[in-house]
Amino acid sequence: MAEPQLDLSKTYDAIVVGSGAAGGMAAHVLTSHGMQVLLLEAGKKLPIEQELRSMEWPYDNAHRGYFAPESHSLTFNEYTIRNPPYGAGFEKAKHLHCYVGSSDYVKNIVVDEREHPFTGTNYAWVRARCLGGKTNIWGRLALRLSDYDFKAKSRDGFGEDWPISYGDIAPYYDKVDLYLGIMGVKENLPHLPDGIFQRPQKLNCAEVTLKQSLQKMGRVLTQYRAGVTSEGLKHNKYRSRCYGRGACERKGGCDIHAAFDSPTGLIHPALDTGSLTLRTNAVVREVTVDPETGKASGVQFIDSQTMKDYAVHAKVVVLAASTLESTRLLLLSKSRLYPKGLANSSGHVGHNFCEHLMGPGVTGRAKDLVAKPSTLDDGRPGGFYLTRFRNLSEKHPKFIRGYGFEGGSGCGMFPHGTDVHGFGASFKEEVRKNQGAYISMGAFGEVLARYENYVDLDPVVRDKWGIPSLRFHYKFGDNEHRMAEDMKETSQEMFEAAGFEIVRVNSRVLTEGWSIHELGTARMGTDPKTSVLNQFQQSHDVKNLFVVDGSAFVSASCQNPTWTIMSLCWRSCDYLADEFRKGNL
Ligand SMILES: Cc1cc2nc3c(=O)[nH]c(=O)nc-3n(C[C@H](O)[C@H](O)[C@H](O)COP(=O)(O)OP(=O)(O)OC[C@H]3O[C@@H](n4cnc5c(N)ncnc54)[C@H](O)[C@@H]3O)c2cc1C
Ligand code: SF4
Q: Which of 180, 240, 245, 249 to mutate to test the pocket of ligand 2 (most atoms within 8 A of CB)?
């Protein structure tokens, strides 16, 4: 079927801005309700299989999988010693990318920092501008939140509770599991609810040793819950099941789409309904407002290639441009009616910014695995997840909230653990002997949502399209630093208890933003004075405006957010479609 083309004279039922996890889900759900939807994506539609090339061997790539020397990817030190915008000082580099951009497979997916400047405090802001956004290259760990997260304030007094409970979102987590596919093992944990899992991958030897040792401490290590279909999805002809080729390990996605990505998981099926119009290269710069009603009337966008300006109209506007980009659009949409920006009568747009802290972790060696025969361990979409154990039944004296660890072990295409020194035949033999014995893990911890951590618009700096850039006012606080100390200590303790020789303990906290889990800045809540959106991600101020990405999060939890972003979005879009049908929007 020919794809419908953009019709500037039409008033669409809904415009969705952004085509990542949130925008793809909004397009899927709204078209499934029969609504006529226009999906606007700032980036290109890339020939994604040619970009990802998951079957390519490192030796068939000109730079062994790394990008060409004329490009530069920002390092930890550069993020720390330079102030944003990060362009200055890298004049020799043809392209300048965030830290994720060091791989040849993502060079056209992540943005060039010089075209997308931001200012203020240091932040490793990873952005992907193309159809599907960051879902083309995400790490696939698909976790649920629980009432330990949604009702965290009721437990420790900090911040705000979410306006929903686990029971409200659980049916939508189930829908997402079934529609997109997830691998995992049931553990019956109240703080990490189980999903409807497809066949899990296997843990390897060192991982089982760690799991068994942790059981004695009352801690739980489980198989990586990957947003990957291991058994296939009969309802989706665009995706194949995982056949464990191991390309997951490198930075770059899955070219057979066993791992979820928004285009094949959500947007292609939505296009098949005939109710979706997709316009790429459409950089939205403002939500327009009807001055009579105060309602959203559509958006204005710039064609990223021709620089031409367009106005498009809809009865409902759904922002899904990712956390921070949706918030930027709210702040950009100032008018006589909304002088502080759209949906911002509370003054909370941009505030309560939160995410996950990364850095502390440990590498060890399982001595009894040294010199054992090689195993195929990188044919998996992930290793293990060690679930949160702090501030559940007991209260930690030094910090609130919790953290989990992502980790893995075994023989990979590129050997783990680099404490082996030397050269020549003896060096190679040492690497071969030791490679399967390494095990490592790194922590992801909750960063508290504080009003004083915020973004606003820079009064001077603009992006390549002349749109004002964001300015960051964001720093980790004492709770995060105390938690990081604990991450370092517990990771070492747990490896020692499992009998691993400690190779390295990381105590360094990575730059703000490193987790790529930016959240908050347009939070949900019951009180319009202290929140931006209601429990259905609908603006308190403008009833036909919805913000369905991570901006709506009230707190970050320590679990990775994408499965929750999509489940919340599905719930909100069901509500939206129902209200639309009743004529309430
Ligand atoms: C390397 C990596 C590993 C990750 N690992 C995990 C993981 O293991 N687990 C997990 O849960 N999450 C992970 N994430 C995070 C995950 O990718 C995001 O949570 C998710 O993609 C968010 O979806 P989104 O739709 O909000 O944003 P995005 O996926 O970023 O999509 C937003 C889209 O909006 C478009 N857009 C932006 N501004 C505009 C505009 N003005 N006009 C029009 N379009 C616009 C962008 O071009 C983009 O396509 C990872 C991310 C990366 C990069
Ligand atoms: S291991 Fe599976 S999900 Fe990962 S790249 Fe290979 S086929 Fe895709």
A: 245
